[in-house]
Design brief:
This protein has helices spanning 2-29, 34-67, 81-87, 90-121, 127-135, 142-152, 161-168, 182-208, 212-220, 225-253, 257-262, 272-282, 286-317. The chain is mostly helical. Helix 4 (90-121) runs parallel beside helix 8 and helix 10 runs antiparallel to helix 13 (286-317). The chain is globular and about 85 Å long.
């Protein structure tokens, strides 16, 4: 009954509150002069968005930052002890290395394969069918993908597809998810399988925006397909590639589901996401887990700054 009541409040109450706010705002503005109305109206319209941003983003970030300087139960300040403790752990540096592997290999392969598939399928007769098949993994949740590939990597050759192929050639089955750093690369393959479809769709949309007359003129002038790709398509797709790469880098930094489902961060596969989860919910250490969250935030900020500067540069050109 409580759930039903909450659903009714959300479905009816939220739109009603928005409409009420708009009506009230316009009613108040009637008492202001034309010039004041023009200046005040934009601020009143964005006020709910600012309130939402402060409540659900800025305040939690500040609270997490403060908690990272407190002890495990957030009862007293301990300064930089949580950060020092993390930096003195050998396993923490392994965690950072694993995230670096995700960033480099996951991003490069997803963007590269997405670009190749987008270019190749652009001239295929059954383009829609091919793209649909490649995009299907994106419809699967990360947890489901982790379960599926756990069976694929299973040590038992009667269950694990990979070990079935290995034993078919007379070799012995390999504990794929137990051997580091092989297991990290195998987890990255799962992420690639899921995200190539995303990169393909975005890059394909960018490819469709390139003038067909321009490409045809280059071919008529004697340019080979490789020259057309590297000298025309690739430069024109560079902004789109940057968008896709930025998205994939942030995804790599936030990797959690696949690693948690398939290995739980054990056997040398731990990433920042699983480290945070284990510190907060297994060890129940609020201070250390908050420090991990802040480190992840600091790792993402440079990527976002790069993205913002690139968008501003594009707007300046336009």
């Amino acid at each position: 009954m409580d759930t039903l009541l909450m659903a009714i409040v959300v479905v009816i109450g939220v739109p009603a509150a928005v409409c009420g706010y708009i009506i009230a705002t316009e009613w108040v503005l009637r008492f202001a002069g034309p010039n004041a109305r023009a200046r005040i109206r934009p601020w009143l319209w964005v006020l709910p968005a600012f309130a939402f941003l402060i409540t659900f983003m800025i305040y939690p970030t500040i609270r997490t930052l403060l908690a990272s300087f407190q002890n495990a139960r957030s009862t007293e300040f301990v300064g930089l002890d949580n950060y020092v403790q993390l930096l003195n752990r050998d396993t923490f540096w392994q965690t950072l290395l694993n995230n670096a592997l995700w960033i480099v290999f996951f991003t490069a392969i997803v963007v590269g394969m997405g670009l190749i598939v987008a270019v190749l399928t652009d001239r295929v007769r059954y383009e829609t069918v091919v793209k649909t098949v490649i995009f299907v993994p994106m419809a699967i949740s990360f947890v489901a993908a982790g379960v599926i590939w756990s069976f694929m990597y299973n040590f038992n050759a009667d269950i694990g597809t990979v070990n079935a192929g290995i034993t078919a050639f007379g070799a012995e089955a390999v504990p794929l998810l137990l051997e580091s750093p092989l297991n990290t690369f195998l987890l990255i393959i799962v992420g690639i399988w899921m995200w190539v479809g995303f990169a393909m769709i975005i890059l394909s949309a960018g490819l469709k925006g390139i003038s067909a007359e321009l490409l045809e003129a280059a071919r008529m002038d004697g340019a080979t397909e490789l020259q057309v790709f590297f000298r025309i398509i690739l430069p024109l797709l560079a902004p789109t590639i940057a968008v896709v790469a930025t998205t994939i880098v942030i995804t790599a930094l936030k990797t959690f589901d696949i690693v948690y489902v398939m290995t739980g961060g054990r056997y040398g596969t731990e990433v920042i996401g699983t480290l945070f989860y284990n510190e907060r919910f297994t060890n129940r250490n609020i201070g250390t887990s908050s420090a991990v969250a802040i480190i992840l935030l600091l790792a993402i900020i440079p990527v976002m700054i790069f993205n913002i500067r690139r968008f501003r540069a594009q707007e300046a050109i336009r």
